[in-house]
Amino acid sequence: MNQRVKLDDVAEKAGVSKTTVSRVLNHRGYLSDQTIKKVHQAMEELHYRPNVVARHLYHQKTNQVGLVFPTVNDPFLPTWNHA
């Protein structure tokens, strides 16, 4: 399968709504154990993996820090490397 598996695909396979799949993934709202098991089973069978980039875009947060140095010969580089 070349295409990425989407929430819609998982929902259809589990026989639930897209909202229910989202609630299972985000641990939100009341869901029966049976529903959670159905969704997890569908995710496993379809090899579903959440899209991390989409999650970061939605939350507008990546929890990553970037450092930019002008050159490798920057006098502060050894200080940063040993920190």
TrEMBL record:
Superkingdom of this protein's organism: Bacteria
Domain called HTH lacI-type: residue spans: 5-59
Molecular functions per Gene Ontology: DNA-binding transcription factor activity; transcription cis-regulatory region binding
Keywords attached to this entry: DNA-binding, Repressor, Transcription, Transcription regulation
InterPro entries named in the record: HTH_LacI, Lambda_DNA-bd_dom_sf
Classification via Pfam families: LacI
Gene3D superfamilies per UniProt: lambda repressor-like DNA-binding domains (1.10.260.40)
Name under which the protein is recorded: LacI family transcriptional regulator
Native source organism of the sequence: Limosilactobacillus gastricus DSM 16045
